[in-house]
Amino acid sequence: ADRQGEYWQFAVQDNGVGIPLDEQSRIFGMFQRAHTKDSPGNGMGLAICQGIVERHGGELWVESTPGAGSTFYFTLPV
Asked: Is pTM beyond 0.90 here?
């Protein structure tokens, strides 16, 4: 975690398949998934995380490159 003024910024990184740019904005919606139906999950996790972070006054976003993985960032007030 890094302190960014009045916020702490956290990062969670993976080395998975990445998320195409055109899908990055929708993956935070309830029941949305970035990958095929063959991938596990129900599409609720990121929506729940975003709700929790926002209710605490923070933000959640992703930076991703297909084939190179993703980094999810979130901030929380100090």
From this structure: no
